[in-house]
User: Fold these one by one.
Assistant:
Number 1:
Amino acid sequence: MKYEKGYTSKNVEDRRFGGGGGGGGFRIPGGAKGGVGSVIAIVLALVFGKNILGSDGTVNFSGAPAASQLPPPSGDTEADLKSFVSFVFDDIQNLWTEEFKKRGMTYEISKLVLFREQVRSGCGAAGAEVGPFYCPADMKSYIDLGFYQQLKNQLKAGGDFAQAYVIAHEVGHHIQNLTGVNRKVSQMSKADPSQENALSIKQELQADCYAGVWSSSVQKKGLLEVGDIEEALGGATAVGDDALQKMGGGRVQPETWTHGSSAQRVKWFKKGLESGSMDSCDTFSAEP
Ligand SMILES: [Zn+2]
């Protein structure tokens, strides 16, 4: 994807080096990264997850109190990546600001928090192993940029547009927060816990569809490069519940899915991409 190198965004909070008021990283004993096992845990727990929230809005994570901050590195090896996600994040929000306006609604700008290893969010403390997530309570998306290494190396989904898809998916959850879908889903899940996974899948697929809608706008602006759409589809395929279960060497168990299969995720991303309209993203009244 074409973007402005060196771009900075006032909507990106960089807490990777301990800045930004208490969000800094501390090391997780034993290291949560590396090894297929840990990736599966991540992914099964929540790749792109909204489910960082327990039903009481807390995170079940053994977050130790803030100890020492990581020392700042001699140079920011993720500087280009930070500039890319900043550009993408602003572009996504510009689109949704316009789309909401067209519908007589007001889009509230959210923030993207960059962290390393562990972060405090309005939803509690979380470690990088949960993967990128959105917290409805503070309306922020969180990502440890190291996730992109795992996406490329372990999940075999490389490319900048696969990375952009991840951000667009998380902002999709923010849209759901603004439109009331998140609240409705949690109410319905509480009322009928047997529907919890099915509802979660619909919610996740809708976020994928919204990512597709944004991709369509990027395409219309001529910012896509050859292979970008394939990269996004590769990302959506990689994080399908069936793909992740297979990769973990386990049985494919559809009854345990919370995000949808690879095929479903690709299907809904494409719906958004082809229609360019959020109206096509009603996963709740359609078959997943
Ligand atoms: Zn999600």
Number 2:
Amino acid sequence: MNELEHQLIYPLAEFLPEYGTKHEVAPGVFWVRMPLPFALNHINLYLLADEVDTVHGRISGWTLVDCGIASEEIRGYWEQIFETGLDGKPIIRVLCTHMHPDHIGNAAWIVERFSRAQNASQRTCEFWITLGEYAICRSLVSGADPGAAERENAYYQKHGVVDLEALATLRVRSEKYFRSLVPDLPKNYRRIREDEPIKIGGRSFQVIIGTGHSPEHAALYCDQDQLLLAGDMVLPRISTNTSVFEIEPEGNPVRWFMNSLDRYRPCAPTTLTLPSHGKPFRNLHIRLDQLQAHHRDRLAEVAQACALKPCSAMDIVPVMFKRPLDTHQLTFALGESLGHLHALWYADELVRFVDDGGVIRFRPKSVEL
Ligand SMILES: [Zn+2]
């Protein structure tokens, strides 16, 4: 545990469910943990006991919140859960908090499987997600975009990546990354809206939309039982990635994320937060304070670095990330560094200019050239 984690309460202490099993964390709410082949090596998914009206009357089943990347390993664990963990009941809804591959990769596979398995006259397995997440994901999954790798490479160069080997690796990554982890997406969906609570089992969940991490992230909060399915918006151990990406080059995701955190403050102080990474925890409000303070500290560091010399996003990477990074991590580190530069730029603390080599740099507003 790091120093900040000591201020949080982990009701299950060090317990982690075995892969391929589920563990009840609140009545009818089960924690499923799956392995990921990244530095962030796992994801938490949640199975909630649910009920639905069909032409044959009310049937019970499960709502699944997020579903893992489309890897053989995760699908193997899902098979295990389908066989022994569902009490013979179908998954009637897959709900994704957002469109990142570790959350949405198996959605089409699971929705299709449980739609087929049920009688055609019954309701099939539905796919629930916000419009913003669905639209971006659908374009990434379906779109042949031959120029994407080239554009992304130009983007990295513009932000100070000069290492040719790194650029070549990044190019290979952008060519295959998303679609290898999300090979397909359900062809239709039910839209999650902030003003429409979602009923799951006997509970009513309020939708809390957040941005800065993904386009229109949906977290679910049940006030009656003080449960928060937080997705990636509030994580107990690590800070959520808040990157500027090539698709939205003028974005201000760090500021949007810091503002979004305030939307969780009305949650009850005793809320049990069920995050997508790390362990279920209490003391949500302390964590919100920690995360906002974390970004304020990083912004101060970035401002200080730019006061010493005009910095590109790549110059900021070692300022913010004092450890070796693999290619996968470099894309997020670069995006997050640019996110912090943009937050200071939008706040009028930094100005932006292009140097003689075509690299975008930031310097304090007060310094005249
Ligand atoms: Zn995410």
